[in-house]
Amino acid sequence: MAEYTEKTTETESGESKGKPKGKPLKPKKPKIPRQSMPEQDPKERICNFNEVPYGFTPETAVIEASRCIFCKNAKCIEGCPVEIDIPAFIRAIMDRKFEESIRILKEDNALPAICGRVCPQEEQCEIVCVIGIKGEPVAIGRLERFAADWERANMEITIPEIAPPTGRMVAVVGAGPAGLTVAGELARLGHDVTIFEALHKPGGVLIYGIPEFRLPKDIVMAEVDYVKMLGVKIVYNAVIGRYLTIDELMNEEGFHAVFIGTGAGLPYFMNIPGENLNGVYSANEYLTRSNLMKAYDFPNYDTPIMRRRKVAVIGGGNVAMDAARTALRLGAEEVTVVYRRSRKEMPARDEEIHHAEEEGIVFRLLNNPTRINDDGNGWVSGMTCIRMELGEPDASGRRRPIPIPGSEWDVEVDTVIVSIGNGANPLLPEMTPGLETNKWGNIIADDETCETSIKGVYAGGDIVIGAATVILAMGAGKRAFRAMHKYLMSLE
Q: Which residue spans within 58-216 are E strands per DSSP?
């Protein structure tokens, strides 16, 4: 219990002489520290693919929620790309109204269990939290995860009221975060929505890119099932551009509008000698083999993947951390991350870097590969790197890495995973006459409405802005569905 800060004076016998002059002070609310989330011990988790953090208990969630001061003009809502009423869902948790909390979340976010795990809240809603000015911000992401996990464990999934059918048909290309968001929101408004997915499972990067230990696939499938409960249909193994074109969807299949959310799945390489050697992977291929095709669960699944002794991962983003930590769990004795800038400039989330460091990943910062070396039989035997120093900031705002002449050195590795970014797959734009793209092959779409150069065709997420975060793709989906609904209802 909080104590009053005022004091009384006493006589020599210990009797009170009364309170000092002035207005009595109110009791101060005790300062509650940000609640930590329990997680697997690093020595244990590197031997399995189970999720690392365990999540909040109800008691811990209530304590963390009580740290919120429920600002009148909550900046955290402005920081959220999908505009969740953050103070409202946190207040519901504080009052132990967990069912109400998840209902509030799902008003604006169809994938809360996913966002609570993989979204960079520290750069969005939490960075503007008032509590964070003099301390640590409220753990908004962890509370979002708690509410979603509580619903899945304690009650049947309920769906909001669906509007009467409008008679309008919408095709969504890609069952990733952007496509699922658009599809779910339009279905709630009464539109007939069909997703066309190129792979045999839904989720996009959620299913093929993010490892099981960071985002369990049963959670992805549960979130997808919720979207299907809203009335959305999904067609698998349907590569739009080959299976059907955008023109055929609209002019022959009867769809009134199309949303393109195909992501950025074309891996970049460094174009250095040796990248064609056996033992060199793109992070996309490496993670897809492990995540989507279950190579980590051998022999229950027989997908081949190299299990070698010394692995090097080139890059410093979340995908690089995922690849490095996956390699460790696949039995590598040593995993090294090679990144050309310093720790400060690494684009990966602090939490992911911290987990990698805990697990024993070696970081070779301010280094850049110049050649991958051949063992004489077409396999990787090592990598030559050059040391770097940081110069003036470049277009990204980060200090430009500059090679130090004569500083080359060799590192022994037998596998190299390249994780330096992804671009747009050119198939769909090339097969869609009139669809404008920029010099990088990304579809050009309006920032607010997601409209493309073709009437009735919209696009959002990584296919427009390049490889980014799950929540930014979902934010594009939110903007797109509003514009698409307006367009659909304007049709005769």
A: 169-173, 192-196
